[in-house]
Amino acid sequence: MEIKIRNLSVRYGTTKVLENINLDIHSKSFLGITGPNGGGKTTLLKTILGLKQPYEGEILKRKGLRIGYVPQHSSFDCKFPINVTEVVSMGNFGKRMKMFAFHKKSNECCIKKILKELNLYEVKNRHIGELSGGQLQRVLIARALCLNPDILILDEPTSSLDTDTRKDIFDILEKLSILKSIIVVSHEKNMLKKYADRVVCISKTIYFDTFDRITS
Ligand SMILES: Nc1ncnc2c1ncn2[C@@H]1O[C@H](COP(=O)(O)OP(=O)(O)OP(=O)(O)O)[C@@H](O)[C@H]1O
């Protein structure tokens, strides 16, 4: 078990946003989270990441657990003068906290491998503002993979992408879930049904839960 969420409630001020959430995140599983706008999905991710504190209950994480986070690609500033390799390399800063960490040989090899795996090697020197939505999403996934996380958390990774590109992103996530746990917030219910082991619907609390192909 990677994460246990027990009786979790979260508030903004006096407003209850999440109430009595109980959820287990298993190793090498694919969890889909869906639900209406404002239902608390992003708040749940932020609480798992430690960016928001529980009001009640707790989130228990396995000791040494590494979590990677992929924010919505629309939140990334594409005007910033930086290329694909530089953005992916930013994922290493958390580990070494040194500006030039990515010049080290081992990091260079690791970044090259990730760029190739995510089919980004051909565009490695391209300015970030010159990428398609799908390429940018893959860059953000690559950046999160730099620290070799045990869990990869993604917030609406396919919003505003076309159908084929959405499928590409979910195919990548499915491959990654062989070695890591994946948690995806998405409104794409059909994609979640097809790819996830488990899908939970959240509107303040979990009101719908499927355990189709759960692995432990
Ligand atoms: N920093 C904040 N301060 C106060 N209220 C907030 C804050 N962030 C979110 N909220 C409120 O908490 C509720 C849940 O928001 P959240 O972003 O978690 O929902 P969501 O399910 O991810 O929505 P969406 O599908 O629209 O992205 C909403 O009513 C939102 O307005």
TrEMBL record:
SUPFAM superfamilies: P-loop containing nucleoside triphosphate hydrolases. InterPro entries: AAA+_ATPase, ABC_transporter-like_ATP-bd, ABC_transporter-like_CS, Metal_Ion_Import_ABC, P-loop_NTPase. SMART domains: AAA. Residues 3-216 form the ABC transporter domain. Keywords: ATP-binding, Nucleotide-binding, Transport. CDD domains: ABC_Metallic_Cations. GO terms for molecular function: ATP binding; ATP hydrolysis activity. Belongs to the ABC transporter superfamily. PANTHER family: METAL TRANSPORT SYSTEM ATP-BINDING PROTEIN TM_0124-RELATED. This is Zinc transport system ATP-binding protein. It comes from Dethiosulfatibacter aminovorans DSM 17477.
